[in-house]
Amino acid sequence: MNETLPPCPECSSAYTYEMGALLVCPECGHEWSAQAAEAAAEAGPRVIKDAVGNILADGDTVTVIKDLKIKGSSGVIKVGTKVRGIRLMDGVGDHDIDCKVDGVGPMQLKSSVVKKV
C-alpha cells in the first residue's frame, strides 16, 4: 500500500492500489483513473453565482429577476418574488437551486434568474 494514493471515492477504503493507469479498490472493486482523481482534488468545491455575480450559499434569500413560466401549469412566478432558505445542489440541466416558492411550492431554479438579497 502506497501512502500517496487517494482513498476510494466509492467506499473510502484506504487500501487502494495501482494497476496500470488505473487505481483499484480491493474492498468494493471500484476502478478509476489517477488523472480524474487529481483533477477532482484540484477543482475543489463548486462555486455558484447569481445573475450579477454574487456567490450564493445554502440558506440565502434571493429575488427572481424575470418572470418564470411554471412548466405544466398556467402559473407564473413574477419578477421580485422573494425565495427564502435556498439549498444549492447539482440538479437537472442548469438548475442548481432547490427551494420552496411561496404560493407555488417546491421547485428547482437556475442561478442565472435570481439575485441575492
TrEMBL record:
It comes from the Bacteria. It holds the Pfam family Zn_Ribbon_YjdM. Residues 48-117 form the Protein YjdM C-terminal domain. Residues 4-33 form the Protein YjdM N-terminal domain. Belongs to the YjdM family. NCBIfam families: phnA (TIGR00686). This is Zinc ribbon domain-containing protein YjdM. It comes from Pseudarthrobacter humi.
